[in-house]
Amino acid sequence: MGDIFPRGRVSVAGASTFGVGEMPGHSTIEMAGKAVQLALADAQIGLPEVDGLFIALPDDLFAGLSLAQYLGLHPRFTDNNRAGGASFMSHLVTACMMLDAGYLDCAVIAYGANQRSSGGKLSTPARPDRWDAPYNPMYPLSFYALAAARHMHQYGTTREELASVAVAARLWANTNPEAFAKGPLTIEDVVNSRLMSSPIRARDCCLVTDGAAAMVLTRTDRAKDGPQPLVPVLGAAAATWYNSVTQADDITVTAAAESGPRAMAMAGLTPGEIDTVQLYDAFTINTILFLEDLGFCAKGEGGKFVASGAISPGGSLPVNTNGGGLSCCHPGMYGMFAMVEAVRQMRGEAANQIAGAQTALAHGNGGTLSAQATVIFGNAETV
Question: String of b and e for 133-172 (b: at least 16 CB within 10 Å)?
Answer without folding.
Answer: eeeebebbbbbbbbbbbbbbeebebebebbbbbbbbbbbb
